[in-house]
Design brief:
With 309 residues, the protein is an all-alpha fold. It contains 14 helices and no strands. It has helices at residues 2-14, 24-47, 55-82, 85-92, 95-105, 113-134, 143-166, 173-198, 206-216, 218-231, 236-242, 246-257, 264-287, 290-293. The protein starts with a helix and ends in a 16-residue tail after the last helix.
Length: 309
Amino acid sequence: MSYQELALAKLLLGATVVTDSFPVLFASGATLGLAAIILLGLCLLVEGRLPRLDRREALLLAIQSFAGIFLFRIFVLTGLKMTTATAGGIIFSTTPALIGLLSFLVLRERLYARRVIAILLALAGVLIINVSQAGRGGGGKNPVLGNMIVFLAVAGDALFTILRRLTDRRISPLAASALVSLIASILFLPFTVWEAISADFSALPWSAWLILLFQGTLGPVAAFLLWFTGLKRVEAGTAAVFTGLVPLGSMILSLLFLGESIPPAALVGTCVILLGIAVTAARKGRLGGAREAGLKNAPKDAPGSRQNP
């Protein structure tokens, strides 16, 4: 079940970055604010209260929100204005590999052959999709600096996953989702208010507001919950493969709501990503799911059964 949760989370996340009808900082702050309200309400309803955090837990959640949500979006907006769309797409394609590397260096997870193959397939698939969609982009004003900023965005996205694995397991996926959304929405608040005051929304069609509502409710709420729930039972290196589904979610929503066509090369890239996921799923089936999902009944002396903190 955890694999399905991770896959759906990234498909939904990809579907929340399609529309450009609204000022980008306003859209980011508004959608995160809506998500925070819903998630906080659900947390209070289901769990009765928010968890009491010690200093380490609060710091990890704050860094996760700051690097993985706030800085990620700021760096994406800034970097893509300075570099080419093709170069930015290539750099974004390294996300699965970077998460896999950090899971090895920080979490001490094993980089066994099947996992490396799956990550490389995900990387290749995302690369094909991004290049096929970004090939029309022109030159950037400062490609070198822009590429560095885009890579920082990718690093922030990778930290979002790694830091969750370091967070105390007593903080539920629902509470963690609510808190990171709340912190990120507060960070965006000054920009949200500023662009709301200066923007003219009168000419926007109803479909734009509908997409914004989706991006602030079902999209991030479900995406955060599913991702954090899946990460509770799956190692970060395995979850890295599923980050390749983000551009697929974007393509699906673009096709359904914006009437955009999908390039044939993007379909090829999608098949490569799915192949990487199939390689990952095959390993889970071979191990009976115990070690990969981190179940309590895994033999303590089995290779790779050691749990990460």
